Task: structure prediction
Amino acid sequence: MAKTKYLVWLLGLGLVLIGGWYFLFSAITPNGQPPLTRVTSENPFMTAFNRDATKVRMVLLLSPT
Result:
């Protein structure tokens, strides 16, 4: 019984790690679509967003799915 429990936990951990890698580190875009970019302090979006920090700002992210 202990071996079965150990194998179930190991399989669950493996699935969580594979799922995490897939959603966090596999940044591949389809052909014809621009590559994904990270929002950093050097990014033009962040520069424009932080230009006037005294005003209320909002970012709206839309997903087609």
In short: Residues 20 and 26 are 9 Å apart (CA to CA). Residues 2-25 form the longest helix (24 residues).
